[in-house]
Specification:
By secondary structure, this protein is an alpha+beta fold. It has a single domain (6-70), classed as Ribbon-helix-helix fold. It has helices at 23-36, 40-50, 57-70, and strands spanning 6-12, 15-21. Strand 1 and strand 2 (15-21) form a beta hairpin. It is globular and about 30 Å long.
Length: 75
């Protein structure tokens, strides 16, 4: 298990951005996108649109993944 974040590029509504997440979060995030039958960029764009200004995208993705596996609502 690696606690060091890994940076990946995502495209959100036509704009490239970098997000740093731990490998375990990237794996879980990809798994959720596959389960929902959507591209990872599409899921990231949805999370980005729903997050508040107080949360960064990486934090919003971590909370999304955590809530998914805990079976809690996203909002």
């Amino acid at each position: 298990m690696s606690a060091r974040p890994v940076k990946h590029s995502l495209t959100l509504r036509g704009h490239r951005t970098s997000v740093s997440l731990e490998a375990e979060f990237w794996n879980a995030f990809r798994e959720i996108a596959a389960l929902e039958g959507i591209a990872l960029n599409e899921l990231a764009a949805r999370i980005d649109a729903e997050r508040g200004l107080e949360a960064g995208l990486a934090s919003a993705i971590r909370v999304f993944v955590l809530r998914h596996y805990r079976g809690r609502p996203r909002g």
